[in-house]
Amino acid sequence: MEKKFPFEDEPNTATFVCSHVLNGERPILYVSHDEDGYWQFLCGGQHTEEDAKIVSLMKAFQLDESVGELAAMDYGKTAERESPEDGWRIRP
Q1: 4, 62, 70, 78: least CB-packed within 10 angstroms?
Q2: Does residue 68 lie within any of the structural domains?
Q3: Which residue range forms the structural domain that includes residue 42?
């Protein structure tokens, strides 16, 4: 069963993901809600500019619904986890 979209931002809000996450090669292990309001959903590895992809917030949520747990995360905060089975740790 699909979870309800939990973010206050519109589902079509542009977000950044790395190609590793978008291609299903690696899970989302790092999330940033930048000071300017942008969301980033990354695998936690090293990236080049070519690895950056833009998708909708809804698409990022569909890739891993557990990121919905971070929907209320304030601007300027990040969250990390060791694996998809671990809980998110939010940091300033």
Answers
A1: 4
A2: yes
A3: 26-79
Cross-strand partners of 15: 55
Total domains in the chain come to 1
DSSP state of 43: -
Q: Does residue 13 lie in a domain region? A: no
Is residue 90 a part of any domain in this protein? no
CA–CA dist 31, 36 (Å, integer):
14
Residue 77 has phi, psi (to 5 degrees) of -100, 155
Contact 32, 78 (CB under 8 A): yes
18 falls within a domain: no
Question: Is the pTM of the predicted complex or chain greater than 0.90?
Answer: yes
DSSP-derived 3-state class of residue 83: coil
Q: Could you tell me how far CA 26 lies from the centroid of its own chain?
A: 12
